[in-house]
Sequence to fold (237 residues):
Amino acid sequence: MTGRVHSFQSMGAVDGPGLRYVVFFQGCPLRCAYCHNPDTWAFSGGQPVTVEQVLQKVRRCAPYIKESGGVTLTGGEPLAQPEFAAALLAALQAEGFHTALDTSCAALLAAARAALEHTDLLLADLKFSTEEDYRRYTGGSLSHTMEVLALAGQMGVPVWLRHVVVPGLTDGPEHAARFAALARTLPTLQKVELLPFHKLCLHKYENLGLPFPLADVPAASAEHLVSLRAALGNLAD
Ligand code: SF4
Fold:
């Protein structure tokens, strides 16, 4: 079983609990306006690797990650390579590693189900709170995202939501109320990580010769998180 991977990070500390080995999948079907990994978009990029090759890399880090951390698949979009993602998650679980799947949920339900069967924690982006904004700023669908999240709930998979707070787009009180209402429909939700928008990715867009759609939007400050924190209460990280 072979997939395409953009890169590996051996000691990730921000993609799930504890110290983690992080596998960045290559290829993403969405085009989020604030994406900080445009270099992972092209399905033709990255390097081909087998499940066994990834396992060999992960095993070398076992002393650091096995007890309180684990392995996180992210991207790009891991579920855009559903067979590879599911096979890798299954193999990791079989060797006793905690598995986290970081996804935009832009995947067929059957593909999501196969991966979730071997996922200990779902790190899921809930990017906007209306269908219109979802389509406009990501190319994806809110209703489909909620279907995947509901599936995780039915399957009993714990969920951490991740949400980028963008000044002028996702920092207002109306959005905060809608977002909190959506979050509260998820029976296995454990917490919501609010990620302040930043522009550290600008050089990547320049290198790729791509315009950054939010170039004129200021980085988010603590002030921009206030509405969401208030609406989410103890769910906010
Ligand atoms: S889903 Fe993630 S990788 Fe894909 S465009 Fe959006 S932010 Fe970027």
The domain at 2-235 is CATH 3.20.20.70 (TIM Barrel).
